[in-house]
Amino acid sequence: MAVKIEKKIKGYSVVKPEDKAPPVKADAVPRAEAEAGLASADVIQMHEKIERPEVLVGSTYKIKSPLVEHAMYVTINDIVLNAGTEHELRRPFEIFVNSKSMEHFQWIVALTRIMSAVFRKGGDVTFLVDEMKAVFDPKGGYFKAGGVYMPSLVAELGAIVEDHMKSIGLIHDPDMSPERRALIAEKRAAYELRNDRGGSKKKPDVSPAPPAARDEDVEVTGEGASFPPSATMCHKCSAKAVVIMDGCATCLNCGYSKCG
Ligand SMILES: [Zn+2]
Q: What is the 167 CA–ligand 1 centroid distance (Å)?
């Protein structure tokens, strides 16, 4: 039964099964009471008709790709639905990309407008991440700081959207349990100890770039980790983080190991 809400909605609560009136005949419940119950059960979901609030919270991410001369700045703004209730939900609302480089501008404007429209449509928008991360540049991708392989600029945009969705709780990382993290840290420590020549606790350097160029580097994602220069690419997580330990290829980023 559809109920038109005439007044402005000021607050909600959801009717739990135990709160619900016992299953009496429908016409036995006074109409006004039934309507009130339905109105309070309304939880706002994302849909196209939601008006953009004057102020949105968001994050801006920096992309420094060898495919583009200048850095690109990706801003994702979120809308908070059902604020202050137990159904509070933060969802992406719009995405913009800014850069001094103009050569990619037309497809970026088209892509970000379509993405923003998809965000506002509602429903599950996390599929965008998989679609974008599966885009390969025919010229070949590139390694970003930290050694993660990016098959294209679109894929890096997808990775940013994924990071953002993880940070707002829209995507959960089920295969990174605390136990797994501990295991990776343990393997990493063992590897570093083995390769720690001369006792200096120097971090393994991935890019021996001059300091001036390093200022331009993007922040390394993940745990701020860098991997040994000799590491090879992991087929599971695309990080250049696979080392041989005890005769067994082991990824220091995701923990993948050929020997199980
Ligand atoms: Zn891996």
A: 21
pLDDT in tens, 119-173: 999 899 999 999 999 999 998 889 887 778 899 999 999 999 999 999 998 988 7
Strand-pairing partners, residue 242, are 232, 251
Residue bearing tokens 């343990």: 186
User: What percent of the chain is predicted at pLDDT more than 90?
Assistant: 33
Q: How far apart are CA 156 and CA 106, in angstroms?
A: 17
Angle at 165 between CA 214 and CA 105, to 5 degrees: 60
Residues in the chain: 260
Residue 34 has pLDDT above 70, yes or no: no
Question: Could you tell me the pTM of the whole model?
Answer: 0.61
Ligand 1 center from residue 236 Cα (angstroms): 5
Please say whether the beta carbons of 241 and 149 come within 8 A.
no
Number of other CB atoms surrounding residue 228 within 10 Å: 19
Report residue 43 as tokens.
């939880």
The Å distance, Cα 162 to ligand 1 centre, comes to 17
In whole angstroms, what is the distance from residue 235 CA to residue 39 CA? Answer: 51
Amino acid in position 177: S
CA atoms in the 13 A half-sphere facing the CB of 225: 19
DSSP string of 197-223, one letter each residue: GGG--PPPPS----HHHHTTSPPP-TT
Bridge-partner residues for 150, per DSSP? 142
Tokens 């850069």 belong to residue: 99
Q: What's the gap in Å between 65 CA and the centre of ligand 1?
A: 21
